[in-house]
Design brief:
Layout (H helix, E strand, L loop, with lengths): L2 H6 L7 H15 L6 H15 L3 H17 L4 H10 L2 H15 L7 H13 L4 H14 L4
Length: 144
């Protein structure tokens, strides 16, 4: 068993899904090499509300996700876990959360855009779904 498998099987969080999701969020937040305070707060709020975690659990999950990212070969390892647990509607909502994270700093970087496309594809959602989620989030944030 690899170190990543050990991390993904961590029973403290009782769900691989939490770790996989946190890892995807961190990858997106750091994809443009600028992890702003707005992105950090959006990421924390998303994780807390998505999994009903308190501050300590959220920070611990993010610390473990940092380690998981260092041990991973690709984002597919995390999106594969998400595919096992989420249905299409939940994956669509997750992509909306990802767009909220991307737009937290009001800037869409080409690396972020590329990674969102890759994640959406890995989650087996259509390009149309990715664009619809993006437009919903932009409208909600007043960025239209």
């Amino acid at each position: 068993m690899s170190k990543l498998d050990t991390i993904l099987n961590n029973q403290k969080f009782n769900k691989k899904l939490q770790l996989a999701t946190a890892s995807v969020f961190l990858e997106i937040a750091k994809s443009d090499n600028k992890f702003t305070n707005e992105e950090r707060q959006t990421l924390i709020n998303s994780i807390k509300s998505l999994f009903d975690l308190n501050d300590e659990e959220t920070h611990e999950l993010l610390d473990i996700a940092e380690d998981a990212i260092l041990q991973s070969v690709s984002i597919y390892e995390f999106t594969d876990v998400i595919n096992k647990y989420f249905n299409n509607e939940e994956k669509y909502d997750l992509v909306k959360q990802i767009w909220r994270l991307v737009f937290a700093d009001k800037v869409l970087n080409r690396y972020e855009d590329h990674l969102v496309r890759l994640i959406t594809n890995n989650l087996k959602l259509s390009h149309r779904d990715m664009i619809a989620a993006k437009m919903e989030v932009k409208e909600a944030l007043g960025l239209s």
